[in-house]
Design goal:
The longest helix has 15 residues. It contains 4 helices and 3 strands, in the order H-E-H-H-E-H-E.
Amino acid sequence: MEVRKVFAATLEKMMRENENIVMLDADLAKAGGTFGLREIFPDRAFDVGIAEEHAVTFAAGLATSGLVPVVAI
């Protein structure tokens, strides 16, 4: 199994088990295998575009509010 499929499947399982986990990607959802997570968790999956710096800063802000961000870059 491809690494990206394992990553996406593992992250999906974790997100189903913990509603505080949110996923951020930098316009790489298809390449990273996380595209389907946006459909399953539309309120907990964010595409920040080609802005990796913003993704990390956004993740820090989410973490301060008690969420558990996973940044896929």
